[in-house]
Amino acid sequence: MPLSDGYETHTGSANYENVYYKDQEGVVSVEISIRKIDGFKTGSYSAIAQIPEGFRPAFMKHNMEYSYGPYGWSAIFVRPSGTIDVYISNDCTSVFGELHFIAQDQA
């Protein structure tokens, strides 16, 4: 999955890659393992990637995740527009996580 400018794949200990895929039932999985080059800032939303039509949810979906460097929490959002955002609770360097939902064209 191509990342927005200023982000790169985190190659730490998490077993995630930056991918999205859809199974034969229409369930979309989004996995992220990202690092913001200049660090995430507390209380900020960051648009990290875009997924194409056919993989988007009918309504915004989100999931709570951990952030690292230092530890904290973050939330991953996938919007019906295809934008993937993360929200950060603390200054950190990396976010790992996954999210699953039914694709809009399958709902």
Entry summary:
This protein is mostly beta strands and 107 residues long. 0% of the residues lie in helices and 55% in strands.
Describe this structure in words.
- The protein is an all-beta fold.
- The chain has no helices and eight strands.
- β2 (19-22) and β3 form a beta hairpin.
- It is elongated, with a radius of gyration of 13 Å.
Tell me the Rg in angstroms. Answer: 13 Å
Oligomer: single chain
Residues in helix, %: under 10%
- N-to-C series of helices and strands: EEEEEEEE
Number of discrete domains: 1
Bin the strand percentage.
over 45%
The tally of helices reads 0
Coarse structural class: mainly beta
Could you name the ranges where pLDDT drops below 50 across 5 or more consecutive residues? none
Count of DSSP E strands? 8
Q: What is the average of the pLDDT values?
A: 84
CATH fold title? Immunoglobulin-like
The CATH first-level class comes to Mainly Beta
CATH architecture: Sandwich
Instruction: Indicate the overall shape.
Output: elongated
